[in-house]
Amino acid sequence: MSLEKLVRLPGTLAFRLTLWYAFIFTLTSLGAFLLFNFLIASGLRERTDQDLLAEVSELSSHLALKRLDVVELDIVQDAESSGVDRMFLRVLSLDGEELVSSDMTSWKNVATNRVALKRLTSGESHVFETLTMPQLPYKVRILYGIIGPGKIVQIGKSLEDDQRFMGAFRERFFIMMATLMVVGGLIGWFMARRALSGIEEVTQTAEEISAGAIERRVPLKARGAEVDRLATTFNSMLDRIHALLHGMREMTDNIAHDLRSPITRIRGVAEMALTSGESMDEYENMAANTIEECDRLLEMIETMLAISELEAGAGNLAMAEVDMAGVVEDACELFQPPAEDKGIAVVVEVPTGALVYGDIQKLQRMVANLLDNAIKYTPPEGTVTVSTDGDESMVFVEVKDTGIGISGEDFANIFERFYRCDPSRSDAGVGLGLSLVMAIARSHGGDVAITSSPGKGTTFTVSLPRKSPF
Q1: Would the pLDDT of 35 be above 50?
Q2: CATH 3.30.450.20 region(s) of the chain?
Q3: Sheet of strand 87-93, all strands in order from the earlier edge strand to the far edge
Q4: Phi, psi of 152 (to 5 degrees)
Q5: Entry pTM
Q6: Which CATH superfamily is domain 317-465 in?
């Protein structure tokens, strides 16, 4: 690993995840240790207490059958069998006077607990206490119990074995925990690196794309649903960006082509007027042609801006309740003269109740573009039918013509900016009308569908929600 990577390592997500793994593992191990330590210590203490109670019960049985001086021998033998430095027994009177005892050489500083004696005389059967003796390295567990009338036994047992066992347990547990922490840290580092490998590939891909490799994509592998979903989404985003860039290039080429033609005509007219103009009429014609071409250019630019604003959601829509039946009737009335001049019949079928929520000016322009498009590509003696329909949630505006039709291979591109089907390239227009129709429909939460047969006609169906989609 290079020095630069080592310097950046503490700030990486993999390093922080590994620290979290180690921290959680340490807390879990500590909790497990405390639980096991408590359970084992409690079990050992309970076993010691049961042994002491068994001694009391045995002495009580012996005292019931023998005299105290005879029981003294049993007391001494019990202490010696366990080890005089590990256990002692002595019999006390109710006021704490020693009656009989084992060898107390190792237990000189063990006093009589007056509180324990008082509790026994108050009715308790036995009393336990744990003492820490300065001269002894281990604690002592002591039991006071009544073994006969006026007689109390005090039994003390060293907890050396229990404490040694607990010490060995703690030592081995901490060694094992330290080992597991190291192993767990390595495993955590491996798992973190493996889990983040997909993100690293996404980052590398983004860096390569930033460097110019626009065709680069993140390889898809079986690394888990989240990372695979990230890689798939990232690739989809890249495909979308690539398509947008491709579309921008095409649009730029189309704009350059469509701007070049009117500019060339303007220049040609001006050049002719300057080189051969002999009268004021020729200069007036040049000015008129220049204004006409400029208007055409301005209209194209304004349409492109309107489409861009609507697609970006930046267009300020004056939303209100709009009667689409009235919008269709007004548009058909407006286009009736040019349709009659061309010998085309315009049929209007608009029942009432076609209310939507939208911008009336944008919706009027949408219907006008569809009507203009239908009349433009319908031959004389043809028919253009405009109708509205709807259900509880949607209103449908249908514009049907008997024109030249559109081939199926053009359906995917018909709403793209500047796209014009081959049969329509000889007609006037720049290919922005249908793009604006789609932009207006989608800005209102609707859509546009198309059905067509070459030579038989085309039908555009606009669907608009009755209520505001926002």
Answers
A1: yes
A2: 14-164
A3: 98-101, 87-93, 151-158, 139-148, 126-132
A4: -125, 135
A5: 0.50
A6: Histidine kinase-like ATPase, C-terminal domain (3.30.565.10)
